[in-house]
Design a protein that fits this description.
By secondary structure, this protein is α+β, with helices and mostly antiparallel strands. Helices cover about 30% and strands about 25% of the residues. Strand 5 and strand 6 form a beta hairpin. The longest helix is centred in the middle third of the chain and has 18 residues. The chain is globular and about 65 Å long.
């Protein structure tokens, strides 16, 4: 959606486009959009330089939100047939201005690949700015990188829920100075009702590392016949820390569900095998990728922060 010089679009075309793999799994068409006319001119030159056919990558000069809204699957005037299978958001700074349009503009089961590079905000330097962008306040604590991921997912999930869509995190990574999340969007008004039980706030002691996570709702088990949703019961210890007696500060709300889909992570780890690497010759940082995926696969999926 914010293609700049089109380098990522060219990589997608050269590594996953027509002729690189079976037609049923190859990318059919890519739209490389940018608001800057000079950037779009660079995209066209780079496509020509790399020998990318015009019918594979289409350069577009438009506002990203306006373009995505024109092809939205949900909402008034939606056109499901025109919606995208995958939208890759990689803005300079926060992803928050583009989330509402993006969650509407993918098919049921479509994929959002989202990057946010405003780690000073997500890391707790400016909690008021973090709340304005993502709907929750970040805290400076030992779990700040995980909380950054959960705040971005909170913004994605609440944006999707307004349109009866569930945001399912497949993979969530905190890398260097940015966060990157891969989220599948489903049409499921029933599962949207469980969103409150997947949101939480954290009560963090100001003197020690002790903290308590407070969910915002209670949902029945998925196997239960009755679907009665309740307000959450209070689990916080009070106004002071039970460990040291220090005061408590409040962070969130944030997404408290699973950060990763185990099956998706397993398939990514398998793609790092020596035999599978041959299908992606353009990737050179296999050791870093495999190390991060292995660490993710070994995480306890049900422990928050």
């Amino acid at each position: 959606a914010l293609a700049a010089t089109g380098i990522r679009s060219i990589r997608y075309a050269k590594e996953l486009g027509p002729g690189t793999r079976p037609p049923e799994v190859a990318i059919r068409h890519i739209v490389a959009n940018d608001l800057d006319a000079t950037a779009v001119a660079h995209i066209r030159r780079n496509l020509e330089h790399n020998g990318i056919p015009a019918d594979v990558v289409e350069p577009v000069c438009d506002d990203a939100n306006r373009h995505m809204h024109s092809r939205r699957a949900k909402g008034q005037g939606g056109q499901p047939a025109e919606a995208y299978d995958v939208i890759d958001l990689d803005p300079y700074g926060s992803c928050s201005p583009f989330l509402d349009a993006a969650v509407q503009s993918v098919h049921d089961g479509g994929l959002l690949c989202i990057t946010s590079t405003d780690m000073p905000v997500l890391g707790g330097n400016n909690p008021e700015v973090c709340f304005a962008r993502y709907g929750g306040c970040a805290l400076k604590a030992g779990y700040l990188h995980e909380m950054a991921l959960r705040l971005v997912l909170h913004a994605v999930a609440t944006s999707a829920a307004r349109y009866g869509r569930e945001a399912q995190p497949l993979l969530s990574c905190s890398i260097d100075f940015y966060v990157r999340v891969f989220v599948r969007i489903h049409d499921s008004p029933l599962r949207v009702k469980q969103l409150a039980s997947k949101m939480a706030v954290v009560h963090q002691c100001v003197q020690c590392e002790s903290f308590t996570v407070q969910p915002l709702g209670e949902a029945p088990p998925q196997s239960a016949k009755a679907s009665k949703f309740k307000p959450a019961r209070v689990v916080v210890p009070g106004q002071t820390c039970p460990e040291c007696g220090g005061g408590l500060k409040l962070g969130g709300p944030f997404y408290a569900g699973r950060l990763h889909d185990p099956d998706f992570v397993k398939s990514c780890v398998e793609a790092c095998d020596d035999e599978a690497r041959a299908s992606l010759p353009g990737i050179t940082s296999w050791r870093k990728i495999e190390g991060m995926l292995t660490a993710i696969a070994e995480e306890n999926p049900d422990v928050v922060l």
